[in-house]
Write a structure and sequence with these properties.
The protein has about 600 residues and is mainly beta. Helix content is about 10%, strand content about 40%. The strands form eleven sheets. Strands 2, 3, 4, 5 and 6 form a five-stranded antiparallel sheet that branches. The protein has a four-stranded antiparallel sheet with strand order 1-29-28-27. Mean pLDDT is about 85; it is low at about 1-30 and about 385-405.
Length: about 600
């Protein structure tokens, strides 16, 4: 009987999905697909395969197939062929022990393609993991490993998984120890689980609801709530001392890390007015030990909860739940490295809770959430063009995008940017991703071509909005890709000046670097990325015709934008690559 009901509901959903495809393809607001088809679906999480071709979904259900209030963990995945198991078939039941209460599932895919699912089970609760080896069929329940107990400490809860850079995963969870609750971390290498470590070291303060992310260098970042504050700790060779990110927050937060090591966090900032005085807030830092940016507010003030965040290929996406007025809604927002924008209510007309978001390749994000009117999990695609161009609160829209060189067709194995119609691949793509991506270099304005390099040699070259890349195969990585000295080409070295108090003086060029420009220079690559300063700060007209405080470097020109003060975008590199192509007559 249950199976026939699942089939009827799934066929309706597939017909609706087919109609949506016929009427325009990419998902827009409210074009979401029901995917759970279990009795009383609750919390969900998503993860992507390393190549971005598969989306993995896990969720918990309050009831089992017989309607008993014991809870189960379910799984499906989606690829180019659709959902597996199909939506007219029962999902894979991951739960280890029938009749035990299973809840709060989390999922991660390691760099080898292995899938890890963990959840809380039983009373007293333990953390259980099951693993799917790379290449096995995820839709086959028998392909998954048997259950492994990850934590049997006292009253464990709130597990969260993230892949590392070497085929393993990290898990964080809350456990009761020494008369208080603490956040613990444990690592699973390809050889198995290692010992647990107390990350929060909260003493008698009680720490809860950890979130974890790992950068390509293997540095682990953990975020948690501790007695009204949002706290953070990083693991390099060992765990660093915890620090406060926000002094007033709820237990709900999200964290993601870029390929460059830049960390992004979202959280619910708690005001003094109770449930109606909450906002979704955002902070970022260039690396685990760099200064945090000032706080940005992404939402209105109200009952804002369950923030989540993801990053890939130059786009950050965020989502949260707004329970201020009926019905509760899911919101989404995006950031291309130049500021948050396009805040949009993704759902309307029904009560929506508990969103999860992951950012995939080609600027397609995947979103799951609970429809509380039907007690089912829904799934949607969120692309960069799915929402109206409305800037986020307190952040101006980015500078108008200029016209671009003639577009090219997508190339196999490269990242294609429809914004400019150009590809990015090979060593240039690796360098772009590792050194700041879109925020640092902007979009590609040309394909790769051969041109005279800075040393007079013929080099593979590619222009970006803010830079020009040269490929030097005679150099070992990471020096095989070098940046052209566009700043020096546009502005000759000014006469030397004396050192200034409070600034860094460079005797190599006789110039000072201080204030916001020094902070940006240090946080985004320093000498290797920008070179030495060629001038002092002075006022110059920007490409948009407005005057800005400016300073030239060998490879860049910094502009200070006071209208962005208090955000990570108060200092912006100029569009020197674009201006160079204008000078050559390649762009209007």
């Amino acid at each position: 009987m249950l199976h026939r009901s699942i089939m009827r509901l799934a066929l309706v959903s597939m017909l609706l999905a087919a109609v949506a495809v016929l009427h325009g393809g990419a998902a827009a607001a409210n074009e979401s697909e029901r995917v759970s088809y279990t009795a009383n679906a609750n919390l969900s999480e998503l993860a992507l395969s390393p190549d971005g071709e598969r989306v993995y979904l896990v969720w918990s259900d309050f009831l089992n197939a017989e309607g008993q209030e014991v809870g189960e963990i379910y799984f499906r995945y989606r690829d180019a062929g659709g959902w597996h198991p199909r939506l007219d078939q029962a999902p894979v039941n991951i739960s280890a022990s029938p009749g035990m209460r299973s809840e709060q599932a989390t999922i991660a895919v390691d760099t080898n393609g292995g899938v890890h699912i963990a959840w809380g089970e039983g009373r007293p609760r333990t953390i259980i993991e099951r693993y799917l080896r790379p290449g096995a069929d995820p839709a086959s329940g028998g392909a998954w490993s048997g259950p492994t107990v990850v934590s049997a400490e006292d009253d464990v809860q709130n597990a969260n998984l993230a892949p590392d850079n070497a085929g393993g995963v990290w898990i964080v969870y809350t456990a009761h120890a020494n008369d208080s609750y603490n956040v613990f971390a444990r690592h699973r290498s390809p050889n198995g689980w290692e010992g647990s470590q107390n990350v929060s070291r909260a003493g008698g303060q009680s720490a809860f609801v950890g979130k974890v992310a790992v950068d390509p260098a293997g540095i682990v970042s953990v975020l948690w709530w501790e007695r009204g504050a949002l706290r953070y700790a990083a693991r390099t060779s060992d765990w660093q001392a915890p620090e406060t990110v926000a002094p007033s927050a709820t237990q709900q937060s999200g964290i993601t890390v870029e390929a460059s090591g830049r960390i992004h966090v979202v959280y619910t900032e708690a005001g003094g007015g109770g449930d109606s005085d909450r906002r979704i807030a955002y902070r970022t830092r260039a690396s685990w030990n760099a200064p945090w940016s000032n706080t940005e507010i992404l939402s209105d003030t109200g009952n804002m909860l369950e923030p989540r965040i993801g990053w890939a290929n130059g786009r950050i996406v965020a989502t949260w739940n707004d329970r201020t007025s009926a019905p509760a809604r899911i919101y989404v927002m995006q950031n291309f490295g130049t500021g948050w924008r396009d805040r949009q209510a993704w759902t309307d007309g029904f009560r929506a809770f508990s969103p999860w978001i992951v950012e995939g390749k080609d600027r397609v994000a995947y979103l799951s959430f609970r429809n509380a009117d039907t007690d089912q999990i829904y799934f949607a695609r969120y692309t960069s063009g799915d929402s109206p161009s409305s800037p986020g609160p307190g952040v101006p829209p980015p500078t108008a995008v200029p016209s671009y060189a003639p577009p090219s067709a997508p190339l196999p194995g490269a990242a294609f940017f429809p914004e400019t119609g150009h590809n990015l691949g090979g060593a240039f793509r690796a360098y772009w991703l590792a050194n700041g991506g879109l925020a640092r270099f902007g979009y590609p304005l040309t394909e790769e071509f051969t041109a005279a390099g800075g040393a007079g040699t013929l080099d593979a070259t590619q222009y970006f909005e803010r830079a020009r890349f040269e490929y030097h195969p005679e150099n070992a990585p990471p020096y095989d890709v070098l940046l052209t000295r566009l700043g020096a080409q546009r502005h000759a070295l000014d006469a030397a000046v004396p050192p200034l108090p409070g600034a860094t003086f460079f005797p190599e060029t006789g110039h000072n670097l201080g204030g916001a420009f020094r902070a940006y220079w240090l946080a985004n690559g320093g000498l290797a990325q920008f070179g030495y300063p060629l001038t002092e700060e002075f006022t110059e007209t920007g490409i948009d015709g407005k005057p800005y405080t400016t300073q030239y470097f060998e490879r860049a020109r910094f502009e200070y934008h006071p209208e962005n003060a208090g955000t990570p975008y108060d200092v912006l590199p100029s569009l020197l690559g674009y201006q160079e192509l204008q000078d050559r007559g390649w762009l209007p």
